[in-house]
C-alpha cells in the first residue's frame, strides 16, 4: 500500500471515529436532564483534537465552521476557533523536502537565507521569513506534503457526518451542492499557483486603505508561494489603540468588503484576524489569498436587491430578490405572503433596526446576534421553504467572519449609511 493511501485511510478512520463519538453523544440528548451545552463542548473538544492533528482540508473545514458563530452553538465554535489560534508548525526539515522538490539550483541561488522557525502555521501550510539574494525581505509559504491529496476524502467524510448528525437542515441534493462548492474552494487553496493569481487580481483592485504583498514569481509554484514581506502588527492589537484608530480600520474593512462584492465581484473570503495586519502608516495589510471567491454580477445584484427591499420594508421585493438567488420559490409568496412577510420583517427588525438606531454601530453590542440566533431557531420549522445557495456559501462565511473580526477590534462604523449606499449602488463613495 502506498504512503498516500495509508495516510488517507488513517485520516478517514480518525474522522469516522470523531463522527461516531459525536453521534453517540447526540443519541443521549433526548435523555431527561442531559446537558446540551456539555454535549457541544465535548464534541468541540473532540473535533479540535482530531482536526488539529490532521491539518489539511479537515482542519480547514473546522476553521470554516468556527466562523459561523452566529449560527452554530457557541460551545462548539469556541473550541473550533482554537484551530485558528493554536495551529502548530512542523519541523523545518519536513518542509525543506517540499522546497527541494519545488526549487532547482538557480532558484535556491536567489535565496540568501530562510528562518527555520515558522512565523505562522495554518491548515494548508506554514510561513517562514526569508531574505532574498537581492536584499528584499520576503515570506515563504510552504504547503504541507499530504494536503493536496486529502481534499476530496475529507469533504466526503464531512458530508457523511452532516447527513448522519442532521446538524444542518438541508436536504441531500442541496447539501451535495454546498459540499461541491466547499470542495472546489478547498482544492483551489491547495494550489499556490491559483493563490498567486488571486493575489495579482486582488492587487489590481487597488482597494483604498489596503496594502497587499507583491508575489515573487520566480520562486513560486504549486506548493510554494513567495511574496515580498509587508511589515505589520497583528490586527487584534488594535484593542489597545484609541477608538478613532479602531473605527478607521473598521470602516475600511466594511467599505472594501462592499466594493469587493458589488463593484469588482472578487472577494477575499477568509476573514480572520491572522489574515490582516496594521502597517505603521495606518493601512490594513491583507494576507492569504487561497480563498478568493468570484461573485457573478447576477449574484451581486440579487443580494443588492434583497438589501434595498429590506431597507424599504418591501417584503415582496425581498422575496423576489431571494428568488433571483435561488433561495425561495418565486411563486410561493403569493400563496403564503403572511408567512414569508412575517419571517422577513422579524429578521429585519433583529438586524437592521439596531443598526439604524445609532449613527455609528458599535460592534461590541451583542444584542443583534442574540436576536438573530433566536429568530433562526424560531424559523427552523420553516426551513423547507428555503434552499441554500451554494454559490453564496463563502460570501456568507465572509460576512459572518467579518462581523466577528470587527467585534474583536471593537470598531464603531456608520453601518446603516453604508448599507444605504450599497443598496443605491454607491459603494464606491463610502
TrEMBL record:
Q: Where is the ABC1 atypical kinase-like domain?
A: 82-318
- Protein family according to the UniProt entry: Belongs to the protein kinase superfamily. ADCK protein kinase family.
Q: Which InterPro entries match?
A: ABC1_dom, ADCK3_dom, Atypical_kinase_ADCK, Kinase-like_dom_sf
Know the name of this protein? AarF/ABC1/UbiB kinase family protein
Q: Which PANTHER family match?
A: COENZYME Q8 (PTHR43851:SF3), PTHR43851
Keywords (alphabetical) are: ATP-binding, Kinase, Nucleotide-binding, Transferase
Q: CDD domains in the record, alphabetically? A: ABC1_ADCK3
So which domain of life are we looking at?
Answer: Bacteria
Its Enzyme Commission number(s) read 2.7.-.-
Q: Which GO terms describe its molecular function?
A: kinase activity
Amino acid at each position: 500500500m502506498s504512503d498516500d493511501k495509508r495516510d488517507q485511510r488513517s485520516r478517514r478512520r480518525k474522522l469516522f471515529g470523531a463522527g461516531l463519538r459525536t453521534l453517540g453523544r447526540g443519541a443521549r440528548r433526548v435523555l431527561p436532564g442531559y446537558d446540551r451545552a456539555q454535549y457541544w463542548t465535548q464534541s468541540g473538544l473532540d473535533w479540535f483534537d482530531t482536526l488539529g492533528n490532521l491539518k489539511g482540508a479537515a482542519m480547514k473545514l473546522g476553521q470554516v465552521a468556527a466562523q459561523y458563530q452566529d449560527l452554530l452553538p457557541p460551545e462548539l465554535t469556541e473550541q473550533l476557533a482554537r484551530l485558528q489560534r493554536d495551529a502548530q508548525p512542523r519541523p523545518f526539515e519536513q518542509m525543506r523536502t517540499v522546497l527541494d522538490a519545488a526549487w532547482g539550483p538557480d532558484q535556491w541561488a536567489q535565496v540568501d537565507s530562510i528562518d527555520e522557525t515558522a512565523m505562522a502555521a495554518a491548515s494548508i501550510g506554514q510561513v517562514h521569513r526569508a531574505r532574498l539574494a537581492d536584499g528584499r525581505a520576503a515570506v515563504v509559504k510552504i504547503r504541507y506534503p499530504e494536503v493536496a491529496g486529502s481534499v476530496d476524502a475529507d469533504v466526503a467524510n464531512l458530508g457523511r457526518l452532516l447527513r448522519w448528525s442532521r446538524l444542518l437542515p438541508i436536504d441531500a441534493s442541496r447539501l451535495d451542492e454546498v459540499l461541491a462548492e466547499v470542495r472546489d474552494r478547498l482544492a483551489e487553496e491547495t494550489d499556490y499557483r491559483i493563490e498567486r493569481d488571486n493575489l495579482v487580481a486582488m492587487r489590481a483592485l487597488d482597494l483604498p486603505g489596503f496594502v497587499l504583498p507583491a508575489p515573487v514569481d520566480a520562486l513560486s509554484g504549486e506548493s510554494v508561494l513567495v511574496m515580498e514581506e509587508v511589515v505589520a502588527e497583528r490586527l487584534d492589537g488594535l484593542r489597545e489603540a484609541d477608538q478613532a484608530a479602531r473605527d478607521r480600520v473598521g470602516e475600511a474593512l466594511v467599505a472594501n468588503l462592499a466594493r469587493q462584492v458589488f463593484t469588482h465581484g472578487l472577494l477575499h473570503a477568509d476573514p480572520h484576524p491572522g489574515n490582516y495586519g496594521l502597517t505603521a502608516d495606518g493601512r490594513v495589510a491583507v494576507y492569504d489569498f487561497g480563498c478568493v471567491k468570484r461573485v457573478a454580477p447576477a449574484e451581486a445584484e440579487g443580494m443588492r436587491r434583497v438589501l434595498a427591499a429590506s431597507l424599504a420594508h418591501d417584503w415582496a421585493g425581498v422575496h423576489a430578490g431571494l428568488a433571483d438567488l435561488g433561495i425561495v420559490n418565486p411563486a410561493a409568496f403569493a400563496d403564503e405572503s403572511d408567512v414569508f412577510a412575517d419571517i422577513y420583517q422579524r429578521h429585519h427588525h433583529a438586524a437592521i433596526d439596531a443598526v439604524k438606531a445609532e449613527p455609528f454601530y458599535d460592534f461590541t453590542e451583542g444584542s443583534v446576534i442574540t436576536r438573530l440566533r433566536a429568530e433562526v431557531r424560531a424559523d427552523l420549522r420553516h426551513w423547507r421553504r428555503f434552499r441554500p445557495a451554494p454559490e453564496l456559501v463563502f460570501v456568507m462565511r465572509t460576512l459572518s467572519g467579518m462581523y466577528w473580526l470587527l467585534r474583536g477590534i471593537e470598531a464603531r462604523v456608520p453601518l446603516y449609511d453604508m448599507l444605504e449606499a450599497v443598496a443605491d449602488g454607491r459603494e464606491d463613495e463610502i
